[in-house]
Amino acid sequence: MDFLFNINVQFYITAYLVGGIPFGLLLAKAFAGVDVKSAGSKSIGATNVLRVVKETNPSLAKKLGAATLALDAIKGVAVLAVGYFAGVSEATMWAIAVLAVIGHCFSPYLGLEGGKGIATGMGVMMFMLPIETIIALVVWVVMAKTVRISSVSSLTGVLAMLIASFFIHPDIAHAPVVFIVFILFYKHIPNIVRLVKGEEKRVI
After folding, report:
1. What is the pLDDT of residue 3?
2. What pLDDT score does 31 carry?
3. What is the pTM of this model?
4. Is 80 exceeded by the pLDDT of residue 100?
5. How far apart are the C-alpha atoms of 116 and 113, rounded to whole Å?
6. Angle, nearest 10°, between helix axes 90-105 and 58-86?
């Protein structure tokens, strides 16, 4: 058990546990009395919180959706910020980023189920690769305004971030970035299947 006293291991565990906090589920239950795990897409993310709560309380839905988005993004950043000021290595920082996303997507509090990871992924990437993430957000906004399909907007933005990272930071080890992108696409497989079938819903 001595390894638990290693500062890197402590940050890894913290990143996973904090990343796994299902803010969307908690907020929707506390303020709207609904279980997002049993309605809509059954995801704990902001989009499903907005969709499910909107059915009964449209004005509250926007607030809870925004709060979920912010908290899901911040939870990974919070651990990274502490790690940065603690002076951990860049490799450890990348591991923290990856584990925060894994925690959200495969939450220890939800039987290894979780959200799609976009907000948490963009949060940690904004900390690690801010320029690439800004590009991703611009692409996301453009796609959201034109296509109006949440999954398409998110995945296009994520892909833009990955491609931009190879041009802007060609010398970094891209394995963590690729792994995060892989997780995000993996969690969106049901959305991709619905897109192929023409069944993916538009955001109204």
Report:
1. 66
2. 81
3. 0.89
4. yes
5. 10
6. 150
